[in-house]
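It is worth pausing here to work through a concrete case rather than discussing structure prediction in the abstract. The textbook approach is simple: state the sequence, then state the predicted structure, then interpret. We follow exactly that order.
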Amino acid sequence: MSTNHFELYTVNRSADQQGKGASRRLRKQNLVPAIIYGGNAEPKAISIKLNELVKALEFEAFFSHILTITVDGEAHQVVIKDLQRHPAKGFPMHADFQRIVKGQKINMNVPVHYTGREDAPGTEKGGVLSTLVSDIEIVCLPSLLPEYLEVDVSGMEIGDLFRLSDINLPEGVIIFDLDMEDAHDRTIVNMQPPTVEEVDEDADTDADEVPATEQSDKADADKDGE
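Step two, the predicted structure:
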């Protein structure tokens, strides 16, 4: 569990502050429209100060951590479930937060950290470590939510691979894909052989390798063309 703590102070959005037009007006005031849903309460439309949200988004743990959102003095325990960004400029345009219910498991995507890359025997032999996933969906109680999953690749030789089932999971955490009826134990990282660039020997033939008669004929042709 991470010891980081994220708290955002927000305000309710009234009915006249909802909808596309109202959302555009909020953004012009450097506010980000958002919603809190789930649990045993009605969805709550809120707005967040842009600079506060941008600052929080700089931390990877924000996306896999229990957050505290205070709405007009009332605290809500939530996790972020969706974030919409401007397609060109990248700033946040809307956020969805899901309430945490004590004792109720949640599905969350958490990042994967690959460690020991430089120490791997395959790397020392020129192999290329190919990481195929950057985050994985897990299921657990909110109190057991890990900030990230760690995969140690320091022992990988060329040709080795790791699957979902090879991940060392914290207690109480399961991988969603492996818990499904049609579970697929997909590869998450492998060590590929070195890439050897083929050289076209014909394209790099030196003049010394061309018979003297051919060189002479070419020189005469060049003179005739002048």
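Step three, interpretation. The CA atoms of residues 142 and 166 lie 23 Å apart. The chain is about 15% helix and 35% strand.
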